[in-house]
User: Fold this.
Amino acid sequence: MFHSLYFKLVVVLFTLFILIGAVFLAVAMYTAPMYQQEVSQRLNRDLATYIVNEHVLVEDGRVRRDNLGELFRNVMTINPSLELYLLDPDGQVVAHSMPRDRVKRRWISLAPIRTFLADGGERGLIMGDDPSFEDRQTGFTVAPIDFGNERQGYIYAILGSEKITHVTDLLQRSLIMKWSLGAVVIALVFAFVAGLVMFFFLMRKLRLLSTAMQQFKAANLVPEDTAADCDTESLDEIEAMAATFEAMARRIQQQVDGLREAESLRRELVANVSHDLRTPLASLSGFLETLQLKADTLGADEKQAYLRIACDNAARLRSLVEELFELAKLDANEVQPQREQFSLAELAFDLSHQFHLRAREKQIDFRVVADETVPFVVADVGMIERVLENLIDNSFKHTPDHGRIELQLSARSGQVEIAVSDTGEGIARDELPHVTRRFYRKPAPVDGVDDGLGLGLAIASRIVELHGSELVVDSALSEGTVFRFTLPASPGQEGPRPRADS
Assistant:
């Protein structure tokens, strides 16, 4: 739930409304006193001018203390919140209506005063220095005092005195402000709830789409290797859909690549099968036709020779067809390994007898090497026998006379490694990835001998894959080739002591 997009939107919306409410209240609390001062300044703009016109405060450069004192008393009586200051032409405080200890400044900046006098009421609030504070500015009104065409000073009136500020603070904490705050909170809560309802209905289709894609993934239509990359438990709906879509795209791309490869293999299969089947079929057909047409003129020995060649070609055809069917069954998973415990060393030594005569005819040193500690393995005996036959047969095809072929078994931490090595012609580095591929044929055979469809190694590789292993090839030209794979060892079992090498 906490990772859903709806929850994230709720948190963002809640935070946004809290920030909006806080900013609104802060602005309202700040602008309310400013608004009150601006209103007061506009209402009392001519107050200082009226005082100057009605009272002679400075005459011939002298301050009329009697008139000034009477003015201060009248002001305190009529409007106790008003603070009056008499300034000289430089802004120095000459007299004031405040208690002596309340005045903190003796000089008032003339810049706001000049702005006020030149403004004519067009601008908004103009703030000036408050002599009651060292660093505070507030609203004011001012009028110049002239005598004999000379500036004698100014009457400077503070409108937002400390009393006004105190009253304003009380009003802000009053019941009306509390109601206003409550109204703002209610409006924000209403907007928040409305936003939640709106998001809920807007995301309904998005949730349905996300659920459908998750069901698609749960149906194992996305492969395990890509499904592991898109763990949607920690993602919201958008991120989960994006991850699932990427996995689906990879899957589709894999399928497209697989179809392209399958199409390429199909074409290659048709070409290779046609080539490999056409040759023995043509030979078989030719010799049989010869026997049929010349049966009366051929001698007994010639007939036997023709029949022997026809039988060899028929056997070659049968072998090719059997290999094609065997590989097709393995690829279609129609044949599954029937695993059991058996001695791999015994199987290896039994196989060596099958190739003993062939090794002696080519004068090849063929031997089986097995450690004393080689344990039993758990695998399908018939399939593993087929693998070893194909690997050894392949080594005999590509190992010249007087060469060496070795079948080696060795224990490797809970597994048994099987390696078939030879001293044959070797395989070029760029051909290594293709030697176990179906229907792979060398572009240019070394000795001019056609290697056929190349199904033997493909069958061996597929059987090894069905046993959960991989057929690895190491080779170098003119140095020989090594095929190796591993099988799981049977726990607590040890194989028989090796017999003499074949």
Observations:
- The longest strand covers residues 137-147.
- The first helix runs from residue 5 to 43.
- Residues 223-228, 444-450, 495-502 have pLDDT under 50 and may be disordered.
